[in-house]
C-alpha cells in the first residue's frame, strides 16, 4: 500500500511519538492511520514473537479484545432487520435456561451494559485465576446466578457476560455459528480477509502475534485468555489494514445495513434519571475538545488496542499492541489525534487537582452497599479507584459541582452534603445514593480481623470454596472450584472490611463480612464488574 505524504512536521511528530517502541528486544505494536480513506501512517514496531524473533509488521494479526463488541452489536441489528431477533425482548426469549434474574435484561440492555447481570469473567478469575474451564462454563455460570448487580436499565456497569449471552442468542437464531455469521455478513463484504473470530488462544492460527506478559523477576510469559469460548465479548483477530477498511465503512455505511441499523449502533439512550450516557451499542460516542469521536478500546491477557474514528474529519486510528512495555494504545491514539487535528481542537478540559481535595484522599466504604471506592493523588491529579485498586480513572467536575468519572463507569458521582461529617461522603451509583465512611489500612486491627475471619466459606452462585488463613505476616484468600484455584493477599481495612492487596495482575475486590458472636458468618464480595456475590461460612464437624 502506498502511503501519502503527511505534513512534514506532523509526520516527524508521529515518528517521535512511536519511536520508543522501535526496538528489537521486546514485544511491540502496529499502527494504522487513515483520513478520508487514504492511508497516512502504517508501521509495525517491536516483536510479534520473542520466541521466534519475528518482527511486528502492518500485516501482523492481533487480538482486538473488546473492540469486538460493536461487531456483535451490528450483527444483532442485521438479524433484527431479518425479523429473527427482537432488540427489546428479554434475553431469556432466546436462552430459556436463564430462569433467574440473568434472563430479565433485554438484548439492547445487555449490549449497552445496562442489563445488571453479573459477569462470568470476574467470577472465573476470582474462583480459578487463569485456569481454563471447559466450553459451556460461561453460560453455566450466568445461568447459576441468583443475584445481580442492579435492576435492568437502572444504570451501566461494563460486563463481558452480557455480550457472551448475546453471542449465543445470535447463534441460535441465525442459522450458523456466531463466528461464521461474522465472517459471512461483516468481514467478507468488506474484503477483511485477515479478520476472524477465534474463541481460544490455544488454537494454532497462522499470522497471529504472541501476546506477552511480564514475568515475575524478569523475562516474559505467554498471554493466554482463560477461556476457550471468547466470543462476542472479545474474540476477534485482525490487522490494521482490515480495521481501517472497517472504520472507513463505519463512516460510509454503504455495503450493508439500513439507516435505522446504523443510527441505532451509535445512538445514545437516556438513563431513567434523564441523563445521557456515552456508550451506545458496543461503541463509545463522545466529544473530545469539540471533535466528535466514536471509539472503543480492547484488552486481553498480554495485549491492548484502540480503535478511534473522528467521523466529521474522516480520521481513523487503529493501534494494536502485544505487550509493548509502557504502552497505552488509548493514550497513543489520543496523542496522534492531537497531532493530526491540532487546528480543529478546542481547549483541553482541566483536570481536578488532588491538592484541592486532600481531606477526601483515601478509601471509602459503605455498610449498605459493601462497595469500596478510593480517591487517589496520581501525579497531582485526583482519580477514582474501585474495590481497592491501586490505580484510578480520571475525574471531571460537572457544572453543578458534582464530581464524575471522565469515562463510562455506570453513573458514579460523589459529593459531600452540608450536613455530612468530615469522614462521610455521599456516592451515587445507578440512581441510588449511599453514605460512605473513610476507612484506613493503617489503623485497622488486623489481628482481631484474622482471628474472626479465618475459616472456610462457600458461594453457591460462584460454585466456589474460599479459605481465609494466616500465612506468616500475610492474610491469604484462596479460592477454588472444579477447574482450578487462585490465591491473593488480603489487606484489612477495618473490623469487617478487607480488599485485595495490590498485585501485578491488577485484579481488585472488596470484602464485607457479617458477624455473629464475634465470629464471621460470611462475606459479600464486590468486584469492579460483579457485585453482591455472597459466601457463607462452612460448618465444621
Distance between the termini: 72 Å
CATH domain topology of the largest domain: Beta-lactamase
What spatial form do the alpha-carbon principal axes imply? globular
Helix fraction by DSSP (H/I, runs of at least 4) = 10-25%
Please report the total strand number as a whole number: 29
Strand order, biggest sheet? 18-17-16-15-14-21-20-19
CATH architecture of the largest domain: 3-Layer(aba) Sandwich
Write the layout of secondary structure elements.
Blueprint: H1 8-18, E1 29-35, E2 38-45, E3 47-49, E4 54-55, E5 62-63, H2 68-81, H3 107-111, H4 120-128, H5 137-144, H6 160-174, H7 178-187, E6 196-197, E7 212-214, E8 220-222, E9 236-238, H8 240-252, H9 259-266, E10 284-288, E11 291-300, E12 303-310, E13 315-321, H10 329-340, E14 362-365, E15 372-378, E16 381-386, E17 393-397, E18 403-405, E19 413-415, E20 424-429, E21 432-439, H11 446-453, E22 455-459, E23 464-471, E24 474-481, E25 484-494, E26 497-500, E27 510-516, E28 519-527, E29 530-537
Antiparallel strand pairs: 1-2, 1-13, 3-4, 5-9, 6-9, 7-8, 10-11, 11-12, 12-13, 14-15, 14-21, 15-16, 16-17, 17-18, 19-20, 20-21, 22-23, 22-29, 23-24, 24-25, 25-26, 26-27, 27-28, 28-29
Amino acid at each position: 500500500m502506498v502511503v501519502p505524504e503527511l505534513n512534514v512536521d506532523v509526520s516527524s511528530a508521529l515518528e517521535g511519538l512511536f519511536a520508543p517502541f522501535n526496538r528489537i528486544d521486546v514485544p511491540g505494536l502496529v499502527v494504522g492511520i487513515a483520513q478520508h480513506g487514504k492511508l497516512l501512517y502504517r508501521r509495525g514496531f517491536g516483536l510479534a514473537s520473542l520466541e521466534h524473533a519475528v518482527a511486528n509488521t502492518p500485516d501482523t494479526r492481533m487480538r482486538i479484545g473488546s473492540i469486538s463488541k460493536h461487531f456483535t452489536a451490528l450483527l444483532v441489528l442485521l438479524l433484527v432487520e431479518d425479523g429473527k431477533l427482537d432488540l427489546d425482548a428479554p434475553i431469556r426469549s432466546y436462552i430459556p435456561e436463564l430462569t433467574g434474574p440473568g434472563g430479565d435484561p433485554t438484548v439492547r440492555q445487555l449490549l449497552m451494559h445496562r442489563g445488571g447481570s453479573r459477569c462470568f469473567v470476574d467470577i472465573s478469575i476470582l474462583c480459578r485465576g487463569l485456569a481454563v474451564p471447559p466450553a459451556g462454563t460461561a453460560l453455566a455460570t450466568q445461568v447459576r446466578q441468583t443475584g445481580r448487580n442492579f435492576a435492568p436499565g437502572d444504570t451501566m456497569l461494563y460486563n463481558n457476560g452480557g455480550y457472551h449471552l448475546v453471542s449465543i442468542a445470535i447463534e441460535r437464531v441465525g442459522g450458523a455459528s456466531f463466528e461464521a455469521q461474522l465472517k459471512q455478513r461483516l468481514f467478507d463484504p468488506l474484503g477483511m480477509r485477515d479478520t476472524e473470530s477465534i474463541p481460544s488462544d490455544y488454537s494454532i492460527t497462522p499470522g497471529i502475534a504472541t501476546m506477552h506478559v511480564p514475568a515475575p523477576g524478569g523475562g516474559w510469559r505467554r498471554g493466554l485468555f482463560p477461556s476457550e469460548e471468547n466470543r462476542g465479548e472479545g474474540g476477534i483477530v485482525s490487522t490494521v489494514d482490515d480495521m481501517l477498511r472497517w472504520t472507513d465503512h463505519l463512516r460510509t455505511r454503504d455495503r450493508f445495513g439500513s439507516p435505522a441499523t446504523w443510527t441505532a449502533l451509535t445512538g445514545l439512550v437516556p438513563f431513567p434519571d434523564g441523563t445521557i450516557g456515552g456508550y451506545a451499542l458496543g461503541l463509545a460516542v463522545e466529544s473530545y475538545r469539540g471533535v466528535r469521536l466514536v471509539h472503543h478500546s480492547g484488552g486481553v491477557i498480554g495485549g491492548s488496542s484502540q480503535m478511534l474514528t473522528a467521523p466529521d474529519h474522516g480520521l481513523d486510528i487503529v493501534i494494536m499492541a502485544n505487550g509493548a512495555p509502557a504502552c497505552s494504545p488509548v493514550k497513543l491514539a489520543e496523542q496522534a489525534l492531537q497531532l493530526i487535528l491540532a487546528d480543529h481542537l478546542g481547549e483541553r478540559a482541566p483536570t481536578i487537582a488532588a491538592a484541592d481535595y486532600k481531606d477526601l484522599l483515601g478509601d471509602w466504604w459503605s455498610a449498605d452497599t459493601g462497595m469500596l471506592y478510593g480517591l487517589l493523588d496520581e501525579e497531582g491529579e485526583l482519580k477514582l479507584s474501585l474495590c481497592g485498586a491501586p490505580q484510578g480513572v480520571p475525574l471531571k467536575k460537572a457544572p453543578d459541582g458534582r464530581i464524575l468519572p471522565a469515562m463510562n463507569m455506570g453513573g458514579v458521582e460523589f459529593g459531600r452534603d452540608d450536613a455530612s461529617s468530615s469522614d462521610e461522603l455521599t456516592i451515587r451509583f445507578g440512581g441510588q445514593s449511599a453514605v460512605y465512611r473513610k476507612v484506613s489500612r493503617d489503623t485497622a486491627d488486623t489481628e482481631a480481623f484474622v482471628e474472626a475471619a479465618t475459616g472456610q466459606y462457600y458461594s453457591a452462585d460462584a460454585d466456589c470454596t474460599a479459605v481465609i488463613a494466616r500465612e506468616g505476616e500475610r492474610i491469604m484468600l484462596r479460592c477454588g472450584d472444579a477447574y482450578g484455584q487462585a490465591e491473593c493477599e488480603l489487606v484489612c481495612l477495618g473490623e469487617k472490611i478487607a480488599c485485595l492487596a495490590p498485585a501485578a495482575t491488577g485484579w481488585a475486590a472488596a470484602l464485607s463480612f457479617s458477624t455473629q458472636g464475634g465470629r464471621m458468618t460470611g462475606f459479600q464480595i464486590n468486584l469492579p464488574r460483579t457485585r453482591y456475590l455472597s459466601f457463607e461460612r462452612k460448618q465444621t464437624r
